[in-house]
Amino acid sequence: xKDKIIFQGKSKKGTEIIIRYPNKKDAKQMMDYINTLSKxxxxxxxxxxxxxxxxxxxxxxxxxxxxxxxxxxxxxxFSGRSLIGISNVYLGQRTxxxxxxxxxxxxxxxxxxxxxxxxxxxxxxxxxxxxxxLEILLLGVFSNNSLAYNLYREFGFIEEGRLPKGVKLKNGxxxxxxxxxxxx
Length: 184
Ligand SMILES: CC(C)(COP(=O)(O)OP(=O)(O)OC[C@H]1O[C@@H](n2cnc3c(N)ncnc32)[C@H](O)[C@@H]1OP(=O)(O)O)[C@@H](O)C(=O)NCCC(=O)NCCS
Prior knowledge:
There is one protein chain. The chain is of the alpha+beta class. The chain has helices at residues 27-40, 53-68, 115-130, 146-154, and strands spanning 5-10, 16-20, 72-79, 82-91, 99-106, 136-142, 158-169, 172-182. It has an eight-stranded mixed beta sheet with strand order 1-2-3-4-5-6-8-7, with helices on both faces. Helix 1 crosses helix 2 (53-68).
């Protein structure tokens, strides 16, 4: 089946990008992407841990099934053949099946050129259009990640609460902020 392309165009800096849904051939690139991001020890849950190709293939299989079942959306950003960004929304289960947990990241060398904002706009739109049960978008952000926090605020996310010391890093703790946005 042909890949479902969501966006094709240029970043603010002129980088040609494509935003599309994943397919099962993307596992290796997705593994490399997350492992590089993890080594960077940026504002994500992975802080150096590495995933194997076997694990990533299993994860991706689960993602693809959820996308098919309308329980999730998952978007990849490519610059040429390089995977440079990922964002997703997955619905919870049972009493949480109306709540979509969102995540986003852009590769280090491509930050600050408007791709994160563009990806966020597209993933929210895809989630609203495709996930019929979705009523609330939910995300977690480290309290020292003011760039992401402000970006989410601009998209209408509201701080719902903070778990003091909810993030444990190698060199100490930061609070974990939970933010939500009603979409129905
Ligand atoms: C958060 C993240 C996804 C944003 O993506 P991005 O492509 O860098 O963001 P954009 O270029 O679209 O910028 C969005 C806004 O952030 C601000 N911003 C971006 N880069 C900035 C910089 N270098 N200095 C100050 N503000 C900056 C601006 O307000 C910008 O909006 P504007 O350019 O329209 O004014 C990306 O930085 C990232 O992956 N960071 C590491 C992982 C992470 O934090 N993920 C989120 C976990 S909750």
